[in-house]
Amino acid sequence: MTESRYRRPSLLDALLPIVVLVVLLASAVYLYGDSASSGPNQIALLICAGLASLIAFKNGLTWREIETAMIKGISVALGAVLILLSVGALIGTWRLAGIVPSLIYFGLELMNPALFYAAACLICAIIALSIGSSWTVAATVGVALIGVASGLGLSLPVAAGAVVSGAYFGDKISPLSETTNLAPAVAGSELFEHIRLMLWTTVPSIVIALLIFLVMGLNTDVAGDTVDRITPLLQGLESQFDISLLHLIPLLVLLVLALKRMPALPAIFLGALLGGIWALMFQPQAIAVQAGEPAPGWVASLKVVWQTFYQGITVETGDATLNNLLSGGGMASMLNTVWLIICAMTFGAVMEHAGFLARLIEGLLGAVKGAAGLIAATLATCFGSNILTADQYISIIMPGRMFREAYAKQGLAPVNLSRALEDGGTITSPLIPWNTCGAYMQSVLLVPVTDYLFYAFFNLINPVLALVYAWLGVKVLRLAPPQEVYKTGSL
To answer: What is the pLDDT averaged over residues 387-408?
Structure first.
């Protein structure tokens, strides 16, 4: 922007689009319920992007500058969009290939309903820790666990909360995670020092979450006819697909690719391709059903697999529960989420480029007193950035840049900032429906964010615990005095 003609936004300028957005989003939820993210939220975001643009015009920005900022903001999310489309393809081909049905089948056979919520959280935590990707875990193991929960007659919102809790715990403390590397890079701290300090907030949070899930599971009123309900589902799965441990190989391949640090996009798309090959090799019956022919040839079979990449599959068994478990997937299933992300990033780009976010943070810093207040302000800013910019990476980078100098002035070690960036940014991102992470989790798990929000206990507890630590002064590390640094030989 041209500084000479651009007027500094007032606090009212910065607040007005946010207040209107909150009113519109609340109205959308009131009027449309769970379907608010299927259009109403997008319109609300675009209206507020327009309002922010009008205020920016008033302050001296041109339409070309605003439009360029919008395009740049959308481009930030294009990587996530491509991953979303690849995940849609993976879910479709893995259902057709019998991979997801096999995971559901073995889960229904082995999982104890009373222990399901805690077990689901723990399984996702371990896998996410080993591969460093909450998105990959949700799209693979998470999808299967939701299917198992449905088959067992358990609460899907609670199951989704368990998946999200475990996935984000493992992602947050894994040295393989992008955000775990990004936060210390922005704050100026060291990776493993950052992870060690995060353990003080993440481990108690996940332990509390696991205990809550365990108590909820033990107190869940599981119907006495659970076996009678599961048996038809198992039979239905066997009637539609070839069920075998052999079909878990593509999942293992994808996990190995993630461990080898292959980027998410090629790894997930390769997983989708492997699913298509697996379907051609092992699921002729399922392909025949999709083709509408008793014995389709190679051309017809290839056409079905090709179609599955973008359209997913539709299964009709006569059992509504089983149909919901097995149908879906495909790139087309992600288009509504892509629409939501584009609208959210458009609004966030205008707010950032017009200086509204910086103005809000500046006002926040003016009211900050002491280390506890600074950490609390960081947590609030990261959460607010997740709401306004709809992107967890921006919620780490922007507050990190803005607060770095303030931490140094307070004599706080940079690792305090990097931990706060994750406690307030990474952890809260899946709790916001229009955030890229929240939109992704909803599209993959097929449970609205507003439904699982209050059951993602780890994601709710962790920021609160971080705030309590800040006010009590627990593990708030200070910069070493210059003479001490000199004596230790660090300089």
So the answer is: 81
Q: How crowded is residue 101: how many other Cβ atoms within 10 Å of its Cβ?
A: 28
Q: How far apart are CA 202 and CA 172, in angstroms?
A: 8
Of 433 and 175, the structure prediction assigns the larger pLDDT to 433
Place of tokens 């332990």: 207
Nearest to 437 by CA among 422, 427, 447, 451: 427
Q: If you count them, how many residues does the chain have?
A: 491
Of 344, 341, 336, 339, nearest to 47 by C-alpha is 344
CA neighbor of 313 nearest in space, from 338, 281, 287, 335: 287
Q: Please indicate, yes or no, whether residues 329 and 363 belong to a single structural domain of this protein.
A: no
pLDDT in tens, 129-143: 867 788 888 888 888
* Separation between Cα atoms, residue 176 and residue 350, nearest integer Å: 32
| Within a domain: 448 | yes
SS3 state at 313? strand
Distance of CA 389 to the CA centre of its chain: 14
Contact 252, 99 (CB under 8 A): no
Scan for tokens 């003609």, then name that residue: 5
Q: Please give the radius of gyration of the chain, using alpha carbons only, rounded to the nearest integer.
A: 24
Rounded (5°) CA angle 456-461-463: 115
Run of H or E including 463: helix 457-472
Residue 146 near residue 166 (C-beta atoms within 8 A)? no
Query: CA-to-CA distance for 335 and 363, rounded, in angstroms?
Result: 38
Neighbours of 4 (CB within 10 A): 6
Report the distance separating Cα 405 and Cα 402, nearest Å: 7
Q: Tell which of 333, 356, 387 closes a domain.
A: 333
Phi, psi of 313 (to 5 degrees): -130, 160
Cα–Cα distances (Å) from 441 to 14, 46, 160, 418, in that order, read 30, 22, 9, 25
| Residue 460 lies inside a defined structural domain of this protein | yes
Residue-level pLDDT at 317: 76
For the record, the structure tokens of 336 come out as 């509504």
> With a threshold of 0.85, does the pTM exceed it?
no
54 and 93 inside one domain: no
- Pair of tokens at residue 72: 């740049």
Q: Is the pLDDT at 227 greater than 70, yes or no?
A: no
Do 173 and 180 meet the contact criterion of CB atoms below 8 Å apart? yes
Handedness of CA 428, 433, 435, 440 (dihedral sign): positive
Residue 491, domain member (yes or no): no
Neighbours of 249 (CB within 10 A): 13
